[in-house]
Amino acid sequence: MVTIKDISQRCGVSPATVSKALNGYGDIGAATAERIRKVAQEMHYMPNSAARQLKTNISHNIGVVFEDDTMSGLTHEYFSQILNSAKNELERHGYDITFIGSKIGGTSFVEHCRYRKCDGVLIASVDFTSQQVIDLINSEFPTVTIDYSFNNHSCVMSDNVDGAYNLVHYLYQMGHRKIAYIHGEETSVTVKRLSGFYKACKELGLHIPDEYVVLGQFHDPKSAGECTRELMRLNNPPTAIMYPDDFAYIGGRIALEKMNLSTPEDVSVVGYDGIHLSQVIRPRVTTWYQDAEQIGAISARKLVETIENKKSSIAEQIMVEGRLIEGETVRRIN
């Protein structure tokens, strides 16, 4: 393993000078510091993590809590984009990531974080109301949550109220008055999207029958397919269906095909998330784009700030705006 002493011998400077250059101290010349860093890179120098932790009390290890009941896991594009963006941002700041679970030896999230000596935790897809998550939030670890807020803790959120609200307005502008909504399970995201849905309907004077609002599941094509069949078998079926997400819509699409119904000729549909898949299938899905890369990067930066500036960092809710992607799945009707 290459040491600071090895680099100092190669550069012809003292170990102290090498240490200052690698740690960004400003009391050595810029040219000397740049030469030392270049040599360190050429020699594939890696700082000793144990020594670095003793010096800074920071392990440079971030825990990530990510659990998905549908078992789609990191194959789900929206979450994989968030986590990949967060990973890239954390690596830019010199941090590694460790996935935190409760299925390893029966340990809790808090116990796993302590075992891994995490500096902080990014909490993404999980049951935020579970006691394990609440215990983690109340522990000594700095946390940033995605799409769920706790008092006095930072979170990064997509504007879910605005997303559902704008989708209803778009469908209305396209002539639709019989709008159904297949929503995800009871989570804070669902509550906000339903709020946006009903807010828009009230503003537009739309009466939505109870049977038009159906409980489905996020990221679950099978559930979306069942809900689609239920809606289209009504005596007065909707002319447009809003799905909980683009991935779930695939199940709705299959169900419609089996019922010999075409999109958008027989029924219009909109998705949510704006994943790449939604824009390569035909017809292209009209959907609400969530900026997953921004959500991931911002959450990572906020967590690093919270770790490295504990006294000055302020807990805040950061909202990331989305936008409409107009595809080919909504027909204009009179």
UniProtKB/TrEMBL annotation:
Q: Which GO terms describe its molecular function?
A: DNA-binding transcription factor activity; transcription cis-regulatory region binding
Query: Can you give the residue ranges of the HTH lacI-type domain?
Result: 2-56
Keyword tags: DNA-binding, Transcription, Transcription regulation
* Record CDD domains: HTH_LacI (cd01392), PBP1_LacI_sugar_binding-like (cd06267)
Q: Which one Pfam family would you cite for this protein?
A: Peripla_BP_1
Q: Would I find Plastid among this entry's keywords?
A: no
Tell me which InterPro entries the record gives. Answer: HTH_LacI (IPR000843), Lambda_DNA-bd_dom_sf (IPR010982), Peripla_BP/Lac1_sug-bd_dom (IPR001761), Peripla_BP_I (IPR028082)
**What's the protein called, per UniProt?**
Transcriptional regulator
Q: Which organism is it from?
A: Eubacterium cellulosolvens (strain ATCC 43171 / JCM 9499 / 6) (Cillobacterium cellulosolvens)
> What is the organism lineage in this UniProt record?
Bacteria, Bacillati, Bacillota, Clostridia, Eubacteriales
